[in-house]
Every structure is written in C-alpha cells, then in structure tokens.
Input
Amino acid sequence: MAAPSVVVVGAGQGGTETAAALRGRGFSGRITLVGAEDALPYQRPPLSKGYLTGGTPADELPLRPRSFFAAQDIELVTGTPVTAIDPDGMRISLAQGGGRRVSLRYDHLVLATGARPRVLPVPGASLAGVHTLGDQRDALALRAELRPGAHLLVVGGGFVGLELASTARLLGLEVTVVEAAARVMGRSASAALAEHLTAGHRAHGARVLTRREVVALRGDDTGRVRVAELDGGERVPADVVVMGVGVLPRTGLAADAGLPVGDGVLVDRTLRAGDPAVHAIGDCARFPSPHAGRPLRLESVQNASDQARCVAADICGAPEPYTAVPWFWTEQCGLRVQIAGSTAGHDRTVVSGDVAGGRFSVFCFAGERLVGVESVNRPADHMITRRLLAEGGAALPSAAEVSHPDFDLRKHRRARQPQ
Amino acid sequence: MPKITYRSPDGTDTVVDVASPGTVMRGAKLNNVVGIEAQCGGSAQCGTCHVYVDEANTLPLPPMHEVEDDVLYGTASPRRETSRLSCQLPVTDAMDGLVVHLPEAQS
Output
C-alpha cells in the first residue's frame, strides 16, 4: 500500500507546524503545504511590534528557512489559493495559473486557513490610509505610513490595537485608541489588567477612549483619511487609521464542502471536522475545550502549534484529545503581559504582587476554582500556572491563599508538590 | 560554523552546524530537531525550548537573566541546575562543540 498523503491548506503557524510535526514523528508519506500568500511561512506576532519598528528584520520572520522544506521533503506551494474541497473525491482544487496543477488528492486534509481582520462598516472605511493588520503585506503597507508626528487612530482596544498603539508611540506618532466597550481588552482581560494597561498607555502618551464609537471617517480631496467622527460629535485627527476590531475565521471552503461551520470550522476532541479525513486547526477552528467547558475558537500561536501537534499525532495513528492549556502573550508599553488558562468565565479576581511597581499577577477565579492567571512582568507566575492547570486541580491555590500578603506561587507549588 | 549537538532522551545525537549569529534554539528549529518546540519564536515567553546543558560542559555560556530564570520555573520537564532556555543562548564560534540534552517534554 502506498504511504498516505497529507495536504495542509494554509501555510501559517498551524499549517507549517503540522507539516514539521508529521515529519518529526517519522511520517513518510507525501506532505503538501499550500499557502495563498507568496512568501515563506512566517511568524505573525512581530507584525504589530518589532517588524513595524525595524527591531525584527524581515529575514527573522520566516518560521523556517526554504532549505528546511526541501530537507524535510515537504512540498511547499505558495501564492496559490485553494478554491474548493471535494470530501467525497478526497481532492482539493487550486487556483489555476501558469501551468500549475489544478487539483491535489489527499488521504488526510488539514485546514489551517486562519482568519482575516474584520472591517468596521462605517462611511469612509475604504479611504486611503485606512488599514487592517492581518498579514505581512498589511504590515508592510502600514509601516510605510507610520511617520513621526502623524496622527494614528486605532479603532478597537484589543491585543492588536493596543500593541500597535504602543509601537506607534515608540515611532513618535500621536495616538488615539477608540474602544466601544467599557474597557480595553474586554473579551480577554480582567478589569484589573485592563485598568493597568490603560494607565500604561496613557503614561506612554496615547489617548485611550472607552465607550466611544467611530461613526465615520472623513477624507481630504485626494481621498485620504484625515478625521474620524465619534459618537457624540467629537472629531479626532486621523492621518492613519487601523481597525483592530476582531477577525472572521476563514470557513468558506469548509462550508462550501458541506463541513460543519459556525464561527469556525466545528471540530471534535481530536480536531476532526465532521469527516475522519479532515481536521481543522488554529484560528479557523472551533473546538471543545475542557478548560472553558464549552467550544472555543482561539487566536493564538500556542493554540495553532499545539493543535498542529495533536493533528500530526492523530494522522500518525496516536489520537489524543486536545487538552492543551490556552496561553497568550502581548507586549505593550514595556509591559510583558502573559495570560494562562481560560479566564473568560471568571467572577472574582485577586491581585498578588506589586501593582505600583508593575510586577503583579491577577488570579482569576470562577467561584472557588482558579481558571487562569494574568501576569504583568511576572513570568514565573505565568509558567507555574500553566503547569498547575495542565496537571489538574489539586495543587491550584485558593482565593484565600492568594490573598495572603506573602503569597508566592513558587513556594506554593514547592509545598504542594515536592519534587 | 560552530557545531551544536542535541542529544535526545533516548541518546540519539543530532549534530547541527549553527550559523552565527543565531541561537541554540534557532539551530534546532532550522533543522527540525525533534524536542524543541519554541512556540513563541524565541522571546523567552513560553519555555518550550528548554534544554539541559551537558554537565561536563566547560564552554563559555552567557549568564542567565531574570526573565529566563523565571520562565524556567514552569518547564514541562523538571528544572535542573543545568537548565537553560535555548533561545537565550546565542551561538558564537567559542561554543563549537556544545552538547545540550533535550528534555522528555516541552509542553
């Protein structure tokens, strides 16, 4: 019997790590990694940070060098969007062009198609100078416009928006962040962390407005954005606008193929997408999470790469349910912020550490159960929380323990789990 | 180019020429050394590029910064005296012949 063939659609973090993990496990069949972008697969986290300042040069973006794909016998097809999936015939169709193949057969298909930035549907959204930040091309276009002294309006106070605000201040721009919700990072951070970050951005010279919405963008007679109108009538100067208002998972291929979809490709515990030969991973997949107790779609490097390894194991005949502890990081205003666990359902927080000195952690509880920790410049708390959550509940600290002024997670762990 | 040896828990050695400037982590990623995940890409965020420097090592290594020390508190395999984050080990010509042992698990 011929060795099975794997086709991976999407050459981002998840897709690339799937191919690498398969070879790492000794998979000997054919592996084809198909990407729509005309570039070597690259890291996305620097796009809102070091890549814009020049601190991370372009040649440090690729996840692996070109020689890696040849050495690992991974066929990398770039600049080629996939146009259709035929689950019955076990084939995908490729965008045609220049004598390239038009379809590919698979024994296993992995969908790692990611997500694209959402655009706020306001008048003026298509003016020159209005950007989203999803891929390297977006970052390149934005970088050319981040000139010292210019006014940057960031629509949305989430991870990407705030990282951009921080980067733009470093580059000498005037920055306004407009967030519609009551606080920044509303979907992903506690009130305590949001407050600290907001204060950090203000101290860094950015204007941060919450409970405010952009209702229109107005341009000059060259068609370039100049001003944003907010609800209530205020006008904010805006030479450059970036919309950081969330993403939409790329699920069109899966939906057209009749696979189950609903704000993400719906997958089971082993990340199979309603078809034993098809998996979906990363930003485009909605999976059952034992940590959240409900299906989740996560936009993070951790999730993409852990799911890649989970799928590689399944394809190699060693299926295991996906149970990785979610974690995120962001760097803003010189703060190293790390979040471990699934904190969305918390109803109580205990802050431990030195808030004024900018080194503390927010312990998030749902009832009596610790569900996650947000750490600011406290990487040990972050790392230990990830381990404790992965190991199960017994050693997790209670709210009363964390509340003690001398609480130290390192000591707590040593006391509970002498090694 | 300096040669770095990555020794798996089962004793298998992978010897890699690592370009300088680079890091012990990057040398592993570029060559698909199994056992180095390096999820965060080398910014001391994740602890998934943990290695044990060979105990007999006498080659010069940079001192450990506080962040690296902190991150090593939560590695998937036990922290030891010889634990380092390979992303925090820049490769220089003076490190030719370095041997690092890969932990049983990174995540």
Remarks:
- The mean pLDDT of chain B is 93.
- Residues 52 and 81 of chain B are 8 Å apart (CA to CA).
